[in-house]
Amino acid sequence: MNTSQIQITFLPNGWHILTSQPIKKRMRWGAENVPLSITPQTEANHPGSYTNMLAKNREDGSIKIGPLIGILTMKGKTKPFRGNIRNFVDIIATAKKIGGLVFIFTPENIDWKHRQIHGYYLNQKGWSPVLFPFPDVVYNRIPYREEEQKPKAQLTLERLSNFPNLYLYNPHFFNKWTLFEWLKQFKTLPCSLPETAQIETKNQLHDFLETYQSIYLKPIRGKAGNGIIRIDKSNDHYLLKYQDKDIQHKKCKTLHEAWNLIQPYIRKQGYIIQQGVPLLTYQGNPFDCRVLVQKNGKGEWVVTGVGIRVAGRYGITTHVPRGGKIAKPHQVLKAAFHSDQYADLMRRIEECALKMALHIEHHVATVGEMSMDLGISADGKLWFFEANAKPMKFDEPDIRQRSLIHIIQYAQYLSFFK
């Protein structure tokens, strides 16, 4: 028997394989190949709770069932876990269809001594606590950088990465400054990098503004556009735009005054300073390309989709939570360029994203997905602004659906079911 599908369900006394025909071979699952019970289908008392799993012959004569996928997140204050619950539900539903079983767990749920995980499984009654063996694959979805940096989370990630027969992917968030340091090491890149430095002094601010007139300050560990500051230099003043819950404007007459305003942010958390790139506009507002790249069932990088994000009227970034809007690539890019240039431009965007993913992968073990922000200047040049190791879900339905399938297919690949 090569890889095939088989059904599994959770009965009151544990996990069971459902079969209409006798199976003489031993069934095993999880990183440590824990035995599974076999139950005739007529005895199953939870209609509709079946999950499709993949089955593969092992050299020892048993059948390996999988993949068993654990999503790692963090404990909630009043709930057993937190994170993007809607995303978890969608991943579970996708695995159920194409082959895999997904559960949720936190560092507190791991019983290292007995090598078990007291995770959470979604059934008709909601989230139920269920005992699992260590999974084949752990998908890291710890939602915030500061939580991922806590000692307990770091220790958990380290131990999971060294656990036999277990594959941890997306091991950590990217650091904005470290990311640019990585990319600067390559002699050739498929797109341009804006000049970027870690800001520490007023002289750096002065030099950047003298050179570029418009610059961005970004938190090294920022997310979704939080904390970004834009500074524009004119003949007699400096205009600061600070993006947090809303956008605040401040006009400063001197560089010293501007420096005093931004210093508290820089002291609180590290910032990079970055060249402002004049982007193409759509209906009067700047736009950029949000590209999702993922590993597929062959372990190869593919472009899952390209979306366009247009800045709001007073926005300094294109992030949707900060007032940006979603637009369709063919509408925006055909409006910015000749229609016959659209296909070539999309090809360049996709090739750039794939090559950048390969470059970044040189420095990160087992990364399975990332989203990228790419800009286009008036001369048609592509610019790389950022990559995110834990992409937010794309709102475009076709991209969203493909992204869910790739998450499961890559887990199938890592656990040798593809």
Summarize the structure.
The chain has 418 residues and is of the alpha+beta class.
Largest sheet: 6 strands, mixed, barrel
The average pLDDT value, as a whole number, equals 90
* Order of strands, widest sheet: 1-2-4-3-6-5
**Hey, roughly how much beta strand do the residues contain?**
25-35%
* Count of DSSP strands: 25
Question: End-to-end span in angstroms?
Answer: 14 Å
Separate helix tally:
9
SS-derived structural category:
alpha+beta
Question: Helix coverage percent of residues?
Answer: 25-40%
The count of domains is 3
- What is the radius of gyration? 24 Å
Outline the low-pLDDT stretches: none
Shape: elongated
How would you describe the overall organization of this protein?
With 418 residues, the protein is α+β, with helices and mostly antiparallel strands. The chain is built from nine helices and 25 strands. The protein has a six-stranded mixed β-barrel with strand order 1-2-4-3-6-5. The mean pLDDT is 90.
Please give a handful of descriptors for the protein shown.
D-amino Acid Aminotransferase, Chain A, domain 1; 6-stranded mixed β-barrel; alpha+beta; elongated; 6-stranded antiparallel sheet; 3 domains; 26% helix; 418 residues
What is the fold's blueprint, element by element?
Blueprint: E1 4-11, E2 14-19, E3 27-29, E4 34-40, E5 51-57, E6 63-66, E7 68-72, H1 85-98, E8 101-105, E9 110-111, E10 116-123, E11 126-133, E12 137-140, H2 145-148, H3 151-161, E13 167-169, H4 176-184, E14 196-198, H5 202-212, E15 214-219, E16 229-233, E17 238-243, E18 247-252, H6 255-268, E19 271-275, E20 281-282, E21 285-295, E22 301-310, E23 325-327, H7 329-336, H8 342-361, E24 369-376, E25 382-388, H9 397-414
Parallel strand pairs: 2-4, 3-6, 7-8, 7-12, 12-13
Antiparallel strand pairs: 1-2, 1-5, 3-4, 5-6, 9-10, 10-11, 14-19, 15-16, 15-19, 16-17, 17-18, 20-21, 21-22, 21-24, 22-23, 24-25
Helix pairs in contact: 1-9
